[in-house]
Every structure is written in C-alpha cells, then in structure tokens.
Design brief:
This protein is an alpha+beta fold. The chain has nine helices and 17 strands.
Amino acid sequence: MEIEDIDMESAQRAENAEMFRDAADLSLRSEEVREILGRPPRRIVRWGITVIFVVVAGLFIGSCFIKYPDVLQAPVTVTTEHLPAGVAARSSGKIDTLFVTEGEIVTEGAPIAVLENPARWQDVQWLRRHISEASRDTLLQLGGIQSAYFAYLKAREDYDYFIRTDYHRQKAKAVGKEIAAGRLLLRNSERQRNTQRQQLEIAHTLFAMDSGLHAKGLTSKSEYENSRSRYLQQQQEYESACAACDNRRVSLLQLEQSLFDLEQQRNDQENSLNLALEGARNGLLAEMEAWEQTYLLKAPCEGRVAFTTYWQRNQNVTAGEVVATVVPERQARIIGKILLPPQGAGKVKVGQTANIKFDGYPYMEYGMVKVAIRHISLVPVQLPEGGRAFLLEVDFPQRLETTYHKQLDFTQEMTGTAEVITEDLRLIDRFLNPIRAVIFR
C-alpha cells in the first residue's frame, strides 16, 4: 500500500515538470506566434478586396437602374358627377306634413315636407293651379299671402268690370253715329251750297245785264238797285251755305278727334288695368314663392330620398338643418377630388397616376385603386380649416376594382388617401440630389 502511494506521487511530480517545460517553450515562441497572427495571408486579403469592390460596384450599378417612385400624399373625396343634394329647412318650426318616405324616388321639384305655418298647403297649391278661377267667394286660408291675394282679386275685378262695361267702345259707337249723321248733313249742305252758287251766278248775270242797260239809260235807277240788291242777297246766301259746309266739316273733324281720343283713352286705361292686374298676379305668385321657399321643402333634383334624423310629423327643425338628402339615381361618372398641398405640387402633371387607398377598405387587405389625374386647378383653393391647396380631379371606373382584383361598393362621399406618383427617380438620383443641392446652393 505504501509502495503504491509512492509511485503515484512520483507520477504526479513527473507530470508537473512536463507542464513547466511546455509553458517555458510557449514563452520562448510567443514572438513568432504574434508575427504569424499579425500578418494575414495575401490570398485572403486579395479575395476580400475583390468581393467588397464587386458588392460596391453592384450597388452603384443597381442604383442607376432601380427606380423608386416619388410620391405625394393628399386626402381624397370620391363622389359622382351629380352630387347628393341636401334639403335644408329655411325656417325653424315643426314638420306639419311629410309627403315621401325613406328610399322613395322623387322628381325634381317634388314636395318632400312642409313646416307648420298660418297657411294651408292645400289652399296654396290650389291657388297656384287655379289662380285665374279664384274669386272672393273662394274661401282660402293663405296666412301671409292673404293680402297679396286680395290685391290680386281687386285688380282682376277692376279689369273685368272695364272689359264688361266697355264704356269707351259704347261711347265710340255713339260718336260714330254722330259722325255718320254729320257727314250726311255735310253732303246736304254741299248740295245747298252748289244750288246757291248757281243762283249767285244767275243773279250776277242779270245784274251785269241791268248794269249795262242802266249805263245806256235804258233802265231806271230803281230797277238797277233792285237787281244789285238781288245779286248781293244771293251772294250772301251763297257765303252762308259755304260757312255751313265749313262748320259741318269742323264738327266732323272734332267728332273724329273725339273718337280717336276715346280709343286712345280706352287703350291707355286697358293697359293700365292690365299692368295693375299683371303686377298683382306677379306679386301674388312672388308671395307664394316666398312662402314655399320658407315653409315648403322640395327635391332639388331627381333621385332617391334618404332621411337622416327627421322622419315624422311634429318634429322640431331648426333653420339650416338638413331634413333629407336626395341621392341621384341615374348613372353618373365617378370622380375624386384631391386636395394637394402646394409643397411639391409643381411636379404634378395631368395624366400621372394616383393610387387611392380608401379609409373604409384597408389597402393591405383590399388593395388600392389606380386612377389618372384628369384636371389640375390653375390656382389653389381656400380650405375651410385654413390654408390653401390645389384641387386635383381624377376619374374612376364605374366598377371600383382594386389592385387585388376586388370590387369595392361605391358610396357617396367616400374618403381616403391619394398617393400621387409624380416621377420614378433612380436611386442614384436620390443619393446625388442632396449633394447637388449643397454644391449649387
């Protein structure tokens, strides 16, 4: 047992001595080891430089061919060419009558609702359709239109009375009869004048003969004076006949002037009454139009009615509130309005592509819709929230098909984000542009 322990100790001593010798040899060769490790093989260095050069050259060459699009983002609203039209109340009050239901198709100008007011809707509509048939015996409840209605009735009654009595025409007929009688008297007077002229000529001939005989002393002076007296008397009667004819002509001219004045007075009064009637009628129509503008809600276009909050009688509305919306039914072009900020807008051109991402359809799930820019506003528009932006218009296909070949359901006033691709820049240009900006500053 002791002999074995002695052998184990001897072996241990021998092993320790060997380890000390190896450490001494390693210490002696450390400079050689460091020299070998500090100088890598030339082959490895040469291949490493080549690989790095190839990678850098590949990146440079690739940057000259690889293009990265320059994109401008802006909000977009998609609607149709014929926008939905809101029907807003112009006065505050309760809804008296609803004429349509949700989803009903209406024509342009069709009544949708009427608000409470002093007038009856049925009476106003009857008066509009039968305005020429209305009379004081027709009992209508027209509220604020009542005074204009009575003014119209008064003007129409005056005009009807004027036409019915026809005073000027009746008087003109009487004057016409006087003119006919006067012309007959004038003809009689002219015949009498002609007779007196002949008698005057005979008296003048006899007087001339008596004058000749008296000059020769063949007749007495009394006979001469009698002949002269007869001649003067015939001359006086002839002049009286001429004066009677002239008086008849003057009377006829006065009657004809009176007839002309009567016709002129009739035309003037008829025109005056007609203008008063037309003015009263237009005033009544204007009052009815103002009443409809205030209390009647009408469809601004043809389409389907959609109610938002108001759908039954006795609901209170406030002036300016939208009671219903009319959505056009006919097929219309789908357009988008992009509000592009001025920064970078100069790079946008007609025909460039825009990718539309709709808020209601996440683009990673549904994809995007590619469209082309059709129009760019010449000047920026003022935004309601402040600032300015250029308005870009884009056309959409009738079927909103995305890049994932999915069909999107179109709804009015769809919103989203538009990515306008202005140009495909090469990567090398993106690297060099900052350097150019610094050099040519």
